[in-house]
């Protein structure tokens, strides 16, 4: 019995010793990429390895416990990620990072893309990214960042893009971005930026795209964008700018796109856009501009072909103000947006008509043709009492079955126009050129609102259409116009001397009938004509098939009758044979 007790104690000791050794071994060899069930690190990663050679190329890492210190030894486990090219740091377990883990990043020497998101990082410290030399993209989106310290981004010679969207950054200080010779894109959208310090971007000589939209910037000066000599696109939309001062954009000599949409701009100094000779697109939409009287505002914008002044408080846009850039808008790709501006309906808009006739841009022509203005009560009354020529023309064309090649009607009611009228519909009433004869007024209250393409009024009498002298091949369609010829009743010899006007009326009536039938057969109208509208001497088919198949040829009644007779004979012979056999 004693021997058994001794053996039991020895076995227990061996088992405990093995268990302890196993734990020590696991703690000593635990890898940051190990599965969760076999990983004791405070920071764990889901890693993707390449096949040849087998090494980690991408990792998605997260803290497993709250309160991991900046200098915690766990960050040294990132030595296993020394070959990683893409690294993401997030809060997979709901535990947010409170700092940029510089001590971990210093081991990732081959990192190309770093993405830190959903953290609670209040400050980005100096040298936060451990001078990563080959990193090309850093994204710190949605981390509640408030402060960017000086030298936060420094000595990243291959860095091309920095994304700081959706944070709480209040200001851009000087020397935040230093020694970034390859940086091309900087995104600061949707922050709380109120101030850009002078020369804040002085070290970003090769930056091409800068987006600072959806912030609270209220003031800019000539030093705000110093150093950005190669900038191509600048987005300052949805800020709180009220004034564009002299030489604000002077350093941006290669700028092509400037977006100032959705600010509170009330005034632009005469040299506000000075130096922007390469600017192609400028948006001033949704601002508070009440006048643009200075003729030098657009001076020097020799490349501008797209301008938006939509939804401002302008009462007038003078030709003299637009004169320096007017020739730029004659090209086929030009664009001028003056929608949603409450221009008064008067002769100050007449120059837009001449402008519309000169430009070769289809979109610009349409925009100017649809130029709307606010009429005074007297002009509105005159318009309401004017002859409704457009609507009458459309109705008359519909009745006659004749479709004019250039007719393209678009009618709007007053609720769609918000009390405005189309200037092109008021030209004959304003008579700015003095050579338009005002049509007679009528008492009708029905009026057209808009026609997009100008057409000539059709006469109310039946219209004669002359068939084209081109051969027509009937492909199975039932077209009454192909064989139709005017019919006349047979006349006696004594009718030759009938009144000439009666003969002309008969001929006109017959031609009109043929013309209508030709139109109906060529392009059937939708319930426009009933049977009583057709000529009385023409047959009306019960049903017209648009595509009649050649396999649906009607059977010859004679052939059908002979077949019936043959079947009868066969049946008779068969009956006789059955009776005898």
Question: What value does the average pLDDT take?
Answer: 77
Strand order of the largest sheet: 1-2-3-4-6-9-12-14-15-17-19-20-21
Q: Which topology of the domain at 34-192 does CATH recognise?
A: Leucine-rich repeat, LRR (right-handed beta-alpha superhelix)
Major sheet size, sense and barrel closure: 13 strands, mixed
Indicate the CATH architecture of the domain at 34-192: Alpha-Beta Horseshoe
- Quaternary state reads single chain
How far the N terminus sits from the C terminus, by CA atoms, comes to: 114 Å
Return the CATH class of the domain at 34-192.
Alpha Beta
The shape, in one word, is flat
What fraction strand?
A: 5-15%
List low-confidence stretches: 20-29, 400-409, 438-561
Structural class given helices, strands, pairing? Answer: alpha/beta
Percent helix among the residues? 10-25%
**How large is the radius of gyration?**
42 Å
Per DSSP E runs of 2 or more residues, the count of β-strands stands at: 23
Name of the CATH homologous superfamily of the domain at 34-192: Ribonuclease Inhibitor
Short description:
This protein has helices at residues 2-29, 102-105, 319-326, 350-358, 362-369, 377-384, 389-400, 414-417, 423-430, 500-522, 557-580; strands at residues 43-49, 56-63, 86-89, 113-116, 123-124, 137-139, 147-148, 153-154, 161-163, 171-172, 177-178, 185-187, 195-196, 209-211, 233-235, 243-244, 257-259, 267-268, 281-283, 306-308, 335-337, 372-373, 421-422. It is an alpha/beta fold and 581 residues long.
